[in-house]
Design goal:
By secondary structure, the protein is α/β, with parallel strands linked by helices. The chain is built from ten helices and eight strands.
């Protein structure tokens, strides 16, 4: 299963969501960082040996490889980071997204693996390079936070994606991932009603706890055990549900 996670506007937490879901995924998984704005994980993570990430190994090297040979192995471009997660590190500079050009579609095909792949595709707008991956995914989740403005942008982005994919015989299953303080997790029900009342048959698949301290620990900015944090506990529940949906496809 290729699962893409995107944002409708701003920075609502797509990178953190993709990272923590991959970290607790209940079966083999690879994390792909495809945000055209550039890599965050390059600076947050270390290799399994504790070394800095090699920026030359990742999305840029994969795009060059599939340009030469469409069947190029994804494994040759992954980095195993601390904790054992296999990661396709993203772009060192935003201008590299345009340089990949039509190669994004080939990258999308290379992400179809025997194991699951969770891809952070960044903010989705018309002309976004990573759109080719998002629309080729099995599931596409848009991350949202509580608030009228967030919901308004989310609704319009979902409508646009539905229009973009209406002519396709194969299209991603759309869903929404709400990131909210755990005490406000009931907001998912209100958002579900709002989307359905607007004619959008797109489910809110779950809630990821907004836990700034745990997100900082996940990114390496502060030492803290993560297992019992709300972020990780909510991610485990969400990952189990999403992985189960993938098995039903």
């Amino acid at each position: 299963m290729l699962l893409s996670i995107a944002s409708a506007k701003g920075s609502p937490g797509a990178t953190t969501a993709a990272h923590v879901l991959a970290a607790v995924w209940p079966r083999d998984v690879q994390l792909a960082e495809l945000d055209p704005a550039g890599s965050d994980l390059m600076y947050r993570l270390r290799t399994r040996a504790g070394q800095p990430i090699d920026s030359a190994r990742g999305l840029v090297s994969l795009a060059a490889a599939v340009r030469r040979e469409s069947a190029a192995a994804l494994e040759d471009h992954l980095t195993v980071v601390e904790g054992g997660l296999e990661v396709l590190i993203g772009l060192g500079r935003p201008d590299q997204a345009a340089a990949i050009g039509g190669g994004w579609a080939a990258v999308a095909q290379s992400l179809r693996q025997p194991v699951d792949v969770i891809a952070d595709v960044g903010r989705l707008t018309p002309g976004t390079p990573s759109l080719a991956v998002a629309l080729a995914s099995d599931r596409l989740l848009l991350v949202a936070r509580p608030g009228v403005d967030h919901y308004g942008h989310l609704r319009e982005r979902l409508r646009w994606i539905a229009e973009e994919t209406a002519h396709r015989t194969e299209r991603p299953e759309l869903g929404v991932l709400l990131i909210a303080p755990w005490k406000d997790r009931h907001e998912a029900e209100a958002l579900n009603r709002l989307l359905h009342s607007g004619g959008l048959d797109v489910p809110v698949v779950g809630v990821l706890a907004h836990d700034a301290a745990a997100a900082d620990a996940l990114s390496g900015r502060r030492p803290r055990p993560l297992d019992r944090t709300l972020l990780v506990r909510s991610a485990r529940e969400l990952a189990a549900g999403l992985a189960g949906m993938g098995e039903q496809r």
